[in-house]
Amino acid sequence: EKDTDAVDICRRAARESGLHFTARAAAVAALAELAPQDCVDDLAAVASESQARPELAVAALDALGRLKSSAPAAEVVRRFCGEDREITVRAAALRALGGFEASIAPADRVDTLVAAALPPTSRHVRSAALRSLSGLPATSWFSSFAKSARPDGDDDLNLRLMTVRLIGEAARSQASLRPHAAELLRRIRGADRRPSVREAIDDALKQLDEDGRAAAAW
């Protein structure tokens, strides 16, 4: 049973603009723990300070992301994933968005994450989106990702390697995706001549081939 006095104290502290950031951030985190069903509006109000206090908005979005079964929390988080948001705020929202239960707005969440995971989005934003996609069932996002992904035009080596790993892991988790993943990896290999990328793709293709042979033998 929640302590209503403690909830009220945390609610006031979270919204008190005169308090130091660390005190407000602690109140935000405590509020999500004490009143997970009743704090979405409070956390949304704190997150709305994103322009003036991006670090506080990040704390509020992290707290919203812990409300994994809350559709209203997911909708608030998704509103902070847009291109008009400050980079650290947008990245925090994308990290949080991937953690909600699979049944909560799956199509909208996937569309948002796929769009953010592809160039020319900033490095921090793309990294957050790719990590969130990796935690979702591959069948929910792979088709959309494969249709939108461009084999060329990705200058960031680390993000390219993250993308290759994501594609390979998706195919390994779901056998029906193997041929589509292999095709996408080969397209990327043909467009990207960097040795480390080609080596990573060759390793991924080899693993997919071995998985396919093992499944056939079984």
Any overview of this molecule?
It is a single chain. With 218 residues, the chain is an all-alpha fold. It folds into 2 domains: 118 residues; 82 residues, no CATH class. 71% of the residues lie in helices and 0% in strands. The chain contains 12 helices and no strands. Helix 2 runs parallel beside helix 4 and helix 10 runs antiparallel to helix 11. The longest helix has 23 residues. It is elongated.
Task: Summarize it.
The chain has 218 residues and is an all-alpha fold. It is built from twelve helices and no strands.
Mean pLDDT: 93
Strand residue content: under 5%
Radius of gyration: 20 Å
The share of residues in helices is over 70%
- Determine the structural class based on helices, strands and strand pairing: mainly alpha
- Number of beta strands: 0
List the helices and strands and how they pair.
Blueprint: H1 4-15, H2 21-34, H3 40-47, H4 54-65, H5 71-79, H6 87-97, H7 106-117, H8 123-134, H9 138-148, H10 157-173, H11 178-191, H12 195-217
Helix pairs in contact: 1-2, 2-4, 3-4, 4-6, 5-6, 6-8, 7-8, 7-9, 8-10, 10-11, 10-12, 11-12
